[in-house]
Specification:
The structure is a single chain. The chain has 79 residues and is α+β, with helices and mostly antiparallel strands. Helix content is 42%, strand content 27%. The protein has three helices and four strands. Helix 1 crosses helix 3. 28% of the residues are buried.
Length: 79
């Protein structure tokens, strides 16, 4: 099971990214443990300055915008 985190303050884009990650996990058949992180201290701890951000297995793989669905699929499969 892959550890996946969506970092964001609860804005619309952050909520959209959570849904996109859930859909990508279903599409790719990837088992994930998804956590939504809204605490600014934790977000900054990842070195993220722009949200939403996507963290897979402890590594920030995207930040500052919504990635395309295909990009999330690829990231879940590669990480």
């Amino acid at each position: 099971m892959k550890e996946v985190k969506v970092l964001g303050t609860g804005c619309a884009k952050c909520k959209t990214l959570v849904a996109m990650v859930e859909q990508a996990a279903v599409r790719t058949g990837t088992a994930i443990d998804l956590e939504k992180v809204e605490d600014m201290a934790r977000i900054i701890g990842y070195g993220v300055m722009a949200t939403p951000a996507l963290v897979i297995e402890g590594r920030v793989v995207h930040s500052g915008s919504l990635p395309e669905a295909g990009t999330i699929d690829r990231l879940l499969q590669e990480s």
